[in-house]
Design goal:
Layout lengths: L1 E7 L6 H6 L6 E6 L6 H5 L6 E3 L5 H9 L6 E6 L2 E3 L1 H10 L7 E10 L2 E3 L8 E7 L3 E5 L5 E4 L3 E13 L2 H21 L7 H9 L1
Parallel strand pairs: 1-2, 1-4, 2-3, 6-11
Antiparallel strand pairs: 4-8, 5-11, 6-7, 6-8, 9-10
Length: 204
């Protein structure tokens, strides 16, 4: 049995196609992080397993959602990702293989309608398919990753990742990640920014 978990917040424009691409799963769980648009209404067309959390980081959301999963395997998909037929078929075969406890999936990143493979997008692998009985926990509030027992495998096929719809979204997402990063630095007692430190960073 395969459970698909989708994390979403205000994704009314993209979650419908995402959920259509995972209809083959035995179970779909949507973990909503405080949506104020029609995300929840759209999700209800595909599943009655919707859990609501507000103001949670991604690792916490992923950990809470997997507690509700009934599947032997759990596959995490974001609302801006699509599972193509080739990846679906590969996953259905992979879950029959006892050699691996988790799989990393590569992503084809689409920006403004064009596939990109440079910089951070060149080798974009994410660990998303996990055997539940070997899973430990997700860690990290930014660029979270799962801890698990056993060996890691790699898929041959990729997720389709629609990274940005427009310039406004790109800017807003950058600001959001910057805010999280700033909070992490404060929690780690990172030195406060001053005029001389700012100039030193610019020079280096």
């Amino acid at each position: 049995m395969i459970s698909v978990i989708v994390i979403a917040k205000n994704e009314q424009d993209r979650i419908d196609v995402c959920l259509k691409s995972v209809k083959w799963a035995d179970e779909i769980i949507v973990a909503d992080n405080g949506s104020t648009d029609k995300t929840m209404d759209i999700a209800k067309k595909y599943t009655d397993k919707i859990i609501e959390y507000k103001e949670q980081d991604f690792a916490t959301l992923r950990n809470k959602a997997i507690e509700k999963a009934m599947g032997d395997w759990v596959f995490y998909v974001d609302a801006d990702e699509r599972v193509l037929e080739s990846l679906k078929e590969e996953i259905l075969k992979q879950v029959q293989d006892d050699r691996y406890s988790a799989y990393a999936v590569s992503r084809k990143n689409i920006i403004f309608g064009t596939e990109v493979s440079y910089g951070p997008y060149k080798h974009d692998w994410v660990i998303r398919l996990l055997r539940k009985d070997k899973f430990k926990k997700w860690v990290g509030r930014v660029h979270e990753y799962p801890e698990f027992e056993g060996n890691l495998g790699y898929t041959k096929n990729s997720l389709l990742h629609l990274t940005h719809r427009d310039i406004d979204q790109m800017v807003l997402k950058s600001l959001d990640w910057s805010k999280i990063d700033a909070n992490l630095r404060l929690e780690a007692h990172h030195p406060k920014m001053s005029g001389w430190r700012f100039l030193r960073i610019l020079i280096t």
